[in-house]
Amino acid sequence: MPVWWPPPDGLLRTSAVLQEGAWERALRIKSRTSCHSGRQGSPSVQNKVALITGVTGQDGAYLARLLLGKGYFVHGIKRRSSSFNTERVDELYLDPHEHETRFFMHYGDLADATNVIRLVQQHQPDEIYNLAAQSHVQVSFETPEYTANADALGTLRLLEAIRILKLTDKVRFYQASTSELYGKVREVPQRETTPFYPRSPYAAAKLYAYWITVNYREAYAIHASNGILFNHESPLRGETFVTRKITRAVAAIERGLQQHLYLGNLDAKRDWGHARDYVEGMWLILQQPSPDDYVLATGSMHSVREFVELAFRGVGRMIEWRGTGVEEVGLERKTGKVLVRIDPRYFRPTEVDELCGDPSKARERLGWSHKTSFKELVAEMVASDLESVADARWRRTWAAE
Ligand code: NAP
Ligand code: GDP
Question: Residue 332: CA atoms inside 13 Å, Cβ hemisphere, count?
């Protein structure tokens, strides 16, 4: 079993054979006659075509699985890279030369308008999920212009493609908006009506994407919706986000491959949920008769410090904190060994101190709520990284970081 794909109940011990067999069955087309050619009217879920930008990312991988399981044809956009970058979706890929498949990947980039228009034209999707983004807040301070191009103008390019191709009545559009929009929060918890106050180039770019989505909905009657998603994590989370950085370090320290974990602001608080639950919410948003904007969150927040403590507790190590500021360290209670240190390099020019969402609207209108608790999320991520640390390839990538 691929270590990065936990079974639906989040338990890693589920039979690999059963998992893979089930997925393969879900991906194969039973008959060519169900092909996505009949474009008139409202297609059944079985015949729907989805286009996912950012399919190679964390959410793209979970969403592609969800939609394939529902019988969709899924077209994903991947970026050209000098090395393989499809690891998160490799399990879904069946060579179309050898198999009948519902999952297709196409080269593309949201910075390239002609490419975006051509892909939308070729695949005539019923639903577009715009997940592609330079999604790392700290990186956005270093690459602000690129972040604006991909995250803000990329969204505009997709919406324009829908308009230029006269697909405004047909396509439903999901925009991956973010709790980072709330930034320096104006009220707690944050809901759909809370004013935004972005605190990074990433959040400022996403602010444009949020409003251009609302504008195209109002100006051209496109079924376009924003999901304002609070942080969601998983074993597939990018390795430089704080949760995954912590769980990888816990695994590496446990296996004797690493001495210390270096972090920035331990007191930042986030409302952390599981990506598997959140992609379900994305889908539900596009199934509503009318477009709208929804907060998806768990409604509780935890600090980075708590995440560290819980992750180390998962491997039987209790952390005690000593010192203050950049001199603060996290010691293992039993041995007195320093495991966590502060590196000011990870402090941000402007920080988002705390985020906590109010998902009431999503609960009432979509029937959505998170299923995975904070504790289960941390346990699943630690278990997965403990398993992958044994992989030789993982060790090589670790050394390169
Ligand atoms: P992720 O793992 O970083 O994935 C981002 C995806 O976008 C990757 O497939 C990446 O391709 C692709 N991408 C980046 N720049 C692109 C470009 N110019 N053209 C085409 N594709 C591009 O992010 P995620 O965690 O899955 O998040 C999905 C979306 O939700 C993002 O828009 C993110 O900003 C937003 N969001 C995430 C969270 C969260 O907590 N995860 C919360 C709120 C909102 P490569 O694989 O080639 O890099
Ligand atoms: P974000 O909420 O999208 O910025 O997600 P991150 O996982 O990147 O960061 C969450 C919080 O953890 C932020 O407030 C960071 O400042 C804080 N943090 C503390 N140490 C680190 C670190 O070493 N890496 C990252 N990425 N974040 C850190």
Answer: 17
